[in-house]
Every structure is written in structure tokens, then in C-alpha cells.
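Minutes, project check-in

Agenda point 3 was the complex the collaborators sent over. CS summarized: two entities, 867 residues total, and the question is how they sit relative to each other. Sequences were read into the notes so everyone works from the same version.
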Amino acid sequence: MSSAQAASLVINLTDSEPGFADEIKELGGEELLECIQCAKCAAACPMVLAGFSFFNKRIIQAILLGLREVLLDDSSIWACQSCNRCTEVCPREVNPFEIIQAMRRVAVREFALPTMSIEGLKSLYDTGHAVYLAGAGNTRAKVGLPEKPPSTVAYPEALKELQAIMRKTALADLGIIPMNGFGVADTCEV
Amino acid sequence: MSRIGVYVCHCGENIAGAVDVEEVRKYAETLPGVVVARDYLFMCSDPGQELIKQDIRDGLVDRVVVAACTPRTHEPIFRKAVENGGLNKYFFEMANIRDQDSWPHWHDREGATAKAKKLVASAVAKVALLEPLEDRYVDVTRSSLVIGGGVAGMFAALDLANMGYKVYLVEKNPSIGGNMAKLDKTFPTNDCSACILTPIMVQVGTHPNIELLTYSEVESVEGSIGNFKVKVRKKQTYVDWDRCTGCGDCVEACPARVPNEFNEGMDKRKAIYIEFPQAVPKRAVLDIEHCINCAKRAIGTEPRIHSKTGEPILAPCEKACKTGACDRSKPYNPDGEIMELSVGTIIVATGYKVMDKTPFKEYSPQSPNVITAMQLERILSATGPTEGELRRPSDGEKPRTIVFISCVGSRDKNHHTYCSKVCCMYMLKEARLIKEKYPNINIYIFFIDVRTAGKDFEEYYNYCRGLGIKMIRGRVGAVDELAGDRLRVRAYDVDLGVPVELEADLVVLATAIEPAPGLEELGRKLGITCGSEGFMKELHTKLYPVETPVKGIYIAGCAQGPKDIPESVSQARAASSAAAVPLAMGRVLVEPLISEVDQEKCSGCGICVPLCPYLAISMVEYREKPLSRINEALCAGCGVCAAACPSGAITLHGYTSAQIHAQIEALTAGIGGGANV
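CS then shared the predicted structure for the full assembly.
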């Protein structure tokens, strides 16, 4: 490894943001400072097994040290499967999952999100499902289920309510996805 | 022929785990004089002791051997059982088959069993030859000496004084108060240290039963429990304390400046000084080494007379003094004054010192902005060099980023392998005090483990984290000086798994707690050895935590090991109540295991006299011949005289030559040709 590469590995805490932890707390990670880095959450996390570099425990430590840029340069936070096991096992009631969500909110505000996430958000707005298989109706019918699931897909008025809610969120201000017409799109397959 | 009973203890698994107890028991039955051999799971328990007592009551045995743990803790228990059974309690011998056998030979069952047999045979051989002895008592001097006037020593002294006993409190510094007087606030409640300590200092200073001997050191200790003779050197103050009022006028006038120990060297005091403003006693001391003898007024000389005015030419200090306390004409003895004290018990509470930063080259100790936590304590204190203003030493600027480094000199084979125990908490405390006052200052604490075991300590830690103090697991590897009085701190964040670095304005080293200087020497005077780390060893970690191997001498506070204020005070009060027991009893039991001179055999050579560490031996005229005589009250039964006597005239009861030889024979039976001698 060249010395230039080695130097780039060092994280300079002088450049860190002292107020970053407060921002995360405001965006939903209220219990952030309760974390003592015991790593029980990491032991329960599928992201660790999948080899992602920033998982719950490391994300929290990076936030505690004010390393916004380090986290924004890494896409690991988007790999969280929302299984919530970390929150279940945490002995300090830190709620690591909520902290990852809060970090995602930070990332979205900086437009630091992967394309897949944009598509997911669009699908959520358009159909009420982050992942929606429009062509699934036939398969459902074959196994005796109604073609449309009993969700926003079957109840357009519910989708309208959801869209109204989404338009009240920061997403509307950021303009990441178009929030125009109503109604379930025919194809929003991702 | 004596009827010996042998009782082999399993000590749960402690002995039985390595020794075949049944085999040892069977073997004991075959030894000469043994009429019964039994074994039991816990011989020291009530049913175990009952086995022994019943055999004595039944007339079955008249001598008892217990093969078990250590006589250090259990000999008195079994002697009592033997006595309760109806025998002279000195018809008892113990074979230590745990500390000297099962523990060191844990993985050698065969060898351990063989050794247990030898140890039992040796005890049986000796017990057959034991004589009945009578306990004796000596009267106790109802006073106590406390060495060290920190928070532990002060509480020990106060408790004893409140019980009505005379207490001498010896302190080497000019004032009592100790290290606690230097602290700003104290965890876990953040009480102001001075506010809780100074009233105690006043109580100690004014208590009618406490004689305060500050600026004094213990010179020598003789005697034993109940009757210690202690010589204390009152160091020369070169100020007449009977006249000194502590006004400080001499200090104002003095031009000589010396690094101030009380402020950890961060500012200067004068050569004549009062240790700190709240000192008790508030008296000035002249540091003769740094005195520059203004107006050529060397101590003990008459002043020159001014040629014009005819007035004597005085030094500024004596000129300023309104009471004549600073009169330099007095012929002071530089060695001070020796006081002789008689006390029944002694408490050692000599406290600690914190390590200096100098040995830690990797942390740039040459930088004024790298300080010890004790120095920061002085900076934070209202009585400190900055009067409580947080300013860094190099330029007096308020730091924006502060880094704390834990375990500096602790848990380190190059310095001290132990954990200093209080550093995690005092770092958190200092960080918290700063953060609460200045929320915008960035504070990082680099640690290995955060050890906050103690009542309300974890809550304190959580609170500090909540304040946004940044905790990074990982020992700092380097602190480098940068331009602009900045410091670069390099470490590895174990939790992120990456190297980190940052620039700081102030680096605080949590240096290790060390025994107070001279503790080892004091230990030699007292007959107490210090452990490998230099702290004094208690008699038994769990059961006799304030007692020492020397009866009548007790320990409290950091003399025994690093501890915080709540623990030091608890231990001090425990030590004072232990030290009060002999004083309350008025007499103490002295085992009759002491030496006696056979006057027929004594040649009067006098070799024994200077050897006795207790000054118990003197030469007396007997039939116009000098003979050695041992004072029973002073003899501690160490046996040095008996071993040295060329005429074999001295017998140490309980360890006679015949008894020792019988033990050796039993231990070496079957070993031929003297090969093992």
C-alpha cells in the first residue's frame, strides 16, 4: 500500500461535525447517546454477515464522532433490511434501526441516495408499495387470492391518503420523486 | 504415651481435588501415638469442630493435629475448639496441606498425596512433644498513632478520638488534607472537595483528643501490639509555630520563588510559605533549601547593625512578621525535634501520589499543554493557579478541543500492571465539569475499558455520554506538537476499526496512582512488607482487609491500593474500629510462644541482645556474671535469639529444638545418605 493510500485511511476527527449527533437525534435517533458500543446489535445484524462496512454499531460510532462525510460516502445504510433485530436485542434501548433510518433521512437531504432507493420511493408514492409487482395478479388468482391485494392497490382512496401524507414530508421539498397525479400506475415494477 | 487424633479436611474440593484424603487418613492411623484419624468436608465448620471436641470429651484423644488450610487464618479457630473440648489449647498442631500442598501441586495427585502424608507425619511428630502453655496478657497503652493526614487518616483519627482515645496524627506536609485538598469536585456527586473536606480538617485540628504532628515523619517504631514506642521527627519549620498566626505577611514579603507542589508545579510559591489557604494548622514553613538568606540573615546568626541608623538589618520575612515568629536569630536545629510516643495501635494511611508525565515520551511530555489529570484538577479548582478559569498552560487561551488519555502508566508492564481504579471516573468528572460549563468545547476520552464499577458510577458515566463527551476505545499511540501550540493526537478507533487523528489544544493524561514515596521504608520500620506494586499488603483480602501481618498495625486508604474517596473513608473507619478493639479491651492476649533463657546454659556472650528486633533482651548481673534476660512483655516470639544462641541456652516455646528436630526427622524419613540435606 502506498503512503498516500495509507494516509487516506486515517480519519481526521478535527474535520468532524460536533453537531452531527444532535441532528441525528432530531431526525429520530433520540437514544443515540445511550450507546456504549457493546456490539450486541452487530451480532444480530444480517448486514454484518453480508459484509457491509457500516452496520448498526459502526454507523452509531461514526455518528457519535461526527463523521457525516464518511457515512455519506458509503452506501451501507441503504442495505439495512429493516429486520429490527438490533432494536429487539439492544440492552440500552438505543433503537439502532431508528438511527439508521435517521441517517437515511440525513442522506436523502443531501441527495446521497442510490438510484434503487429513488425507484422504491417513487413506487411507494405511486402504488403504496416500495416493491410492487404489477404482473402478480395472475399468480395471485391461480392460488385463489384476489388479484389485487387488500392494500392501497385495492383501495385508491387509501393511496390518496398516503400520497397526501408523503406530500407533507421532506420528500416533497426535496423533489427527489415527482409527486403529481393520483392513481395506481399500471407498471411500477422495479 | 500421648493419644493423638488426626483430622483431615477436604476443604470442599480445595484439598480433596488434589489429595487422596482417604489415603492420608488411613496413613495417619498408622503413625506412632495416633489413636484416631478422621476426615470431614469442612473441618472448620461447626460439625467439623464438634468431631474434635467429642473425641476429647470422650477421653479418646489428648493431642490434636488438623491437616487443612493455613494456620494464618485457621489456627486460632482450632485452638479454641481444642480448648472448648477441655484440653490445653497448645496441644494442637496444624499441617498445611492446602497452601503448601494441594494448591501448588494441583495437577500431581500422587505427589500431592505423598506430600500430605509427610506433612501430617511431621505434625504428629511435633504434637507428641508439645508442652502445655498458658496465655498471657499485656496491658495496652490507650492511645493510637495515625500516619498520614489525608481523608483516610483524618477519619481514622476522628473516629478514635470520638471514642475517647488519645490520637497522634502524623503528617509529613505542613498541613493535613492530603491529595483530596487539591481536588476541585468529587465524583459521583460532584460535591466541592474543599467544601466537604475543610470542615473535617477543622474538626481534626481542634479535637481535644487529637494531637496534630504536621511537617513530621515517623523515625522508628519499636514494641508490639498494645505497647508501641514510636519516634517521630518534627521537621524544622524555622518558624516559631507558637507565635505564627498564619497571617501570610512573611509570605508576601519573601522574594524567593519555588515551584508550587500544591499546584502541581504550575505556578510558584515562596521559600517561606503556607501550603494552601485553607491549611490546618495554618502556619508558615520556611523551605530552607530555597531560602536565599536575604540581608545575609542566615538562620541562627545575629543581625548586622545598620551603620547609620544603628538599627538591626532584618530579612523581609522577619521584618514583615508582627509576632516575632520569623525571628532568624534563633539557633534552630536543622534536624528538627524527635518526639517519643507510646501508643497501643497504629494506623497507616499514607495515601498516594500520581505519576508524573515525564516518562511518557510518546505523549510529548515537554509540551506545557500536555498535563496530568491532577494538574487539570488544579486548573479547575478555584484555589488553583488560574483560580478556576479553564486556560491552557502555554498561552492562557481557553482550549477548544481537549483530549483525555486513560491508563497512562496503569495496566502497563513498563510501569504499573494494576488498574489505578479511579481514573475512568475522574476523567469523566473532569470532562463533565468542563462540558457543563463550556458545552462548545470538544472533549474526547480515549480509553481501553471504561471501568465505572461503584454505586451511582454507571449512571454518572451515562450522564457524561449524554452530554456529548466523545468516547473512543483505543489507547492513544502518539501526541505530536504542531505549530500554534496545537497537539496532534493519533489513535486507532477499535469500534470503527480505523485509525483516527485529531488536533487538540490540551491533552490530559490520566496518570497512574502510585504509593506515597517512602512507603516501603516506612513498611520496614513497621515490619510490614509491601507487595510487588509497592502498596502495603493487608492480612487477608476478604476477611481481614484493614489488618496487617503485624498485630496492632492497621491500614486504610491508598496505602493499601488505589481507591476512591468513598472507599478510603469506609476503610479508614473500619481500620479505626479495628484499632480501637485492643484499646477498649485494655489488655491484649499475647501468645506464650516466646523465648526463655536457661540461665544455667547462658554464657553471657550477649550475641542475642542486638539481634532482638523488639529490644526485649537485656543483660543482667547474676551471681557476679552477666546473663541474658528476656522481657516477656516485649518478646514477640520471632525466634531470632534462639537460632543465634551459641550455647543453645534459649528456648522458643512451641518451637523447641526437640520439636523441630522431630518434625525434620518425620519429613525426611526414608531419605537415606543425607543426599537431601
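Noted in discussion: The mean pLDDT of chain A is 88.
Follow-up: revisit at the next meeting once the mutant set is ready.
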